Amino acid sequence: MLKGDMNSKLTSLRAFKTLIMSCDSVIRTRYIKSVAPSFFEVFFAYQKVSPVREDDLTVLKEILSIQRLLLSNCLPNTHIHMIRLIVPVLISVLGSAGHAHCLAEITYLTQTYPAEVRTMFGNQPHLKQQLETAIRSSAAKAQAQATPSRLSSSNVISAAPKIALKMDFSNFK
User: Fold this and answer.
1) pLDDT tens digits, 13-29
2) pTM of structure
């Protein structure tokens, strides 16, 4: 399904998304069943590619939007199965160029399907631990980047000239 350059990948994904959104439910189901294996194969490839490059991020975002659409169209009793497929890949991409987007997607899944995500993390505690580690390292990295800027701004303030006043203006009204 997704062989070739970036434009052909995006075109294939967008065509798949259009068919999912616009077809009759019977045709849509048949099409999804025929294309989904290769679609998930491409998605699972992101689990092996670490870190995700900036140019792959556009394709990953399109795949995630399709998965969100698939998840909203599947039966409620199959949500847990889809989430078990999606979340491990999202967690593996954390820490690369797609970190913020994957974290937002995990947050969306957690808010939209809380029971399913809780069940998945309960059955796979190593994923929960990986997610917590990635979030902590991201927060530490953000704080480390913010700390030098604070130090430099405080140095600028302390380096400003000071004028000593000879007259006391405290009683001035």
Assistant:
1) 888 888 888 878 888 88
2) 0.72
